[in-house]
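Amino Acid Chain and Its Fold in Token Form
===========================================
Scope: a single protein chain, as residues and as a discrete description of its fold.
Amino acid sequence: labelled as such and written in the usual single-letter residue code.
Position: the record begins directly beneath this header, with no further notes in between.
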Amino acid sequence: MRTGLGALTNRGRSFLASGVAALLCAFLLGEHDLLRIGVLVVALPLLAAMVVARTRYRLSCARRLDPPRVEAGGEATVTLRLENVTRLPTGLLLIEDTVPYALGARPRFVLDRVEAQGVREVDYKVRSDLRGRFPIGPLTVRITDPFGLVELARSFTISDTLVVTPQVVALPALRVSGEWTGGGESRTRSVAAAGDDDVAPREYRHGDDLRRVHWRSTARRGELMVRREEQQWQSRGALLLDTRRHAHRGEGPRSSFEVAVSTAASIGVHLAGDGLGLRLVTDQGAEHLADGGAGISLLDTLAVVRQSQTRTLDFGVAALRQGGGDGLIVAVLGAVDPEEARTLARVRRGNMTGIAVLLDTVAWDRPELAEGEQFQQTRTVLAAAGWRVVRLPAATSPAAVWQDAVQHAGRVPGDLSTSLGVGGGAA
């Protein structure tokens, strides 16, 4: 009963107060009719509170997100499935799902009656222009009486997470030379896919595991043959994202930082689709990618990346140097001074391919300041070290930048002093 009284709505409290006032007036004035009215008005919310408090509905709830991962600006559909697992029908149910304000207003629904063993499904849409991981849930069910005098809230514990990833722009299907590295006797072929007859054997060598003996080839050649020790040629690369707060300009989805994240996501997904094993590196060091750099893990990591207070790229450069097997480095950079550019330029060695996407942050809000002195010096330093350098101004698609970087792969740095700011190097 105490629970029911605590769940009285404003209407229920008004009824109770009015009934008590009517009873007092009836006693003072000696009005029997007013006494009956007062008793009725007081009894109504008390009876409603008793009935709602004693209600023992058993409900199960399931939630489905379609899709569970969307790009910024995209919509996802949330489907709620509510089941009455008892043999008694429910009364009026008010359900409300918990969503962050970034996804919109909290959805509310009214279910008039759910029969015994009955199921109800409702759905609603959510949308966010901001990246991130957003919890959805738990679901709150409010049980009320037909007069709206009592409302008792009960919540489920389950919740789900909607991942809003950066916007990914489809890049031209152009291959960057120089990113294949690795070793082995041959590029691996899948025995499961090619069949046992297609295995490329070699002669037995002292110390080889006898379990690798290929008996069919041994019988055909007349000497002991074993399957080759196949070490997969790896296509490895690193993606450097400059997240320093002071290196970017603007706020919100159109800021240079958000454009840099979107550009990194677009390039990363494109390279992962070509079979490149990526490492994600920021100015704070290497980021862990759960599936070795595949697109989904990269997008999940970029969905929650935030601006840092770091002032230099030292930690990022150190992380790049630790990945000595990288054949390709793509750096998406904000404002970089020439000294930082020299430190980054030295990371590229030998036949390694280096691509630098420089955001012209000085001109982000003022286009008339395009390609300031610091920007030109940085571009010159990187291009002289053999990096392919492209300029990314505001309102420019990463697809155009990527096409420039790939199509100018064969030029020498001196030929690339174009208005686009493209710098080439050895591939």
About this structure: The first strand starts at residue 59 and ends at 66. Residues 32-53 form the longest helix (22 residues).
